[in-house]
Amino acid sequence: MAARNYVLGADGNPVPEPDLLKWAAWFEAADRRLAEDFIEGPASTARVSTVFLGADPALYETMIFWEGQALHEGQARYTSRADALVGHARATERVRAAQAAGL
Length: 103
Prior knowledge:
By secondary structure, the protein is an alpha+beta fold. It is built from two helices and six strands. It has a domain at 32-100. It has helices spanning 20-29, 81-100, and strands at residues 6-8, 14-16, 33-40, 45-52, 60-65, 75-78. The longest helix is centred in the C-terminal third of the chain and has 20 residues, at 81-100. The chain starts with 5 loop residues before the first strand and ends with a helix.
């Protein structure tokens, strides 16, 4: 079964888009960011970003960008907006805990 493509509707929820060219044009132009946090630490700043991917099965992805740290490029994918927001908050807390531990 082929993956289904989605765009975000006016309410921010995924809407199926069967036309691949329309989906690609939307994907290129859209602000797909759901959440983004910059967490300043004593030695460096980490960025936690959650975006809408627009294709099944995982519609959202959270990534940690923190050069030189074990959590760098840590990622998780989600099938719902609600789960993605919870996952973003958890990733942010993981970074804060690592910074507090001196990592």
